[in-house]
Amino acid sequence: MTTTTFLTDARALALELGLLAAERLRQAGAQTLQVEEKAQGDWCSALDREVEALLRQRIARRYPQHVFWGEESHSGTPSAAQLQAQPVWVVDPIDGSMNFLRGYPQYAVSIALLQGGQPVVACIVDPVREEAFTAARGLGATCNGRPLAVAPTAQLSQAVAATVFPKPRAPFMDDYLRELSAVMKNVAGVRRAGSMALELAYLAAGRIDVFWERGMGAWDAAAGLLLIEEAGGQLWALDGQPWYAASALAASTPTLRAGWEGLLTQALPK
Are 212 and 206 in contact, with CB atoms under 8 Å apart? Predict the structure, then answer.
């Protein structure tokens, strides 16, 4: 069983490392970095790998028996058995790399610890606004120490939605565009700023009400999942898979879930 002492210690480490990584991003600032295009619309740089290596080193120093799963390390997805058997740290060193590399001020460091395949510690740090979102299972979620709670929005027509656009050549683009059309016609507004981690943190903070995406990675969702749940919201897979293996995810406040899930489902052809 995960103890409160372990959770608070791991949360403190996640926050320490998130702030350390955020400071490294601020130091890098607008300096010229060599850009690597992993795929069309999917960018990274040597800084992504440098920050991830730093976080991996610091985590291994504190918890040498834990597994590390990073977006840039290409270490492969842990097996379901491994996720159930061992603590796994899931890290995205720069969520919103394209934004960072272009000087668009919407990116974050995302760190989560999984046990039994579920996040038990989370930290998302916004280096630009100097906001640190943290959570531990059963201990609540905060932003810079202030408790978080999802918004009380009562109707989907009053909701603010957020999303992440698929990569240009995504095979599910047509389905996504059907969903986007349905959402734009049925909510108060739609936001897309380029960092899934921050969008999920914003749902936990009550700044948006609903969210959906297709084709993102587990490192994009892990920390935000716990923040949302600890703030009273819900996140689920649209394809019935475990969240870390899902091809599409959605999240909302409990009040809006039925309508939100129904809207996304009805947008697609039978």
Answer: no
List pLDDT tens digits, range 168-192: 889 999 999 999 999 999 999 999 9
The answer to whether 45 and 35 are in contact (CB under 8 A) is yes
pLDDT in tens, 26-49: 988 755 566 666 555 455 677 888
Q: Tell me the longest C-alpha to C-alpha distance in the chain.
A: 51
Report residue 255 as tokens.
């009040």
Three-state DSSP class for residue 111? strand
Of the given ranges (65-74, 234-243, 249-258), which has the lowest mean pLDDT? 65-74
Cα dihedral 29→32→33→39 (10° resolution):
100
Angle of CA points 56, 221, 218, to nearest 5°: 65
Domains detected in the chain: 4-147 (3.30.540.10), 156-266 (3.40.190.80)
CA 101 to centroid of chain Cα atoms: 19
Report the predicted TM-score, pTM, of the whole model to 2 decimal places. 0.93
**For the chain, first and last CA: distance in Å?**
43
CA-only gyration radius of the chain, Å: 18
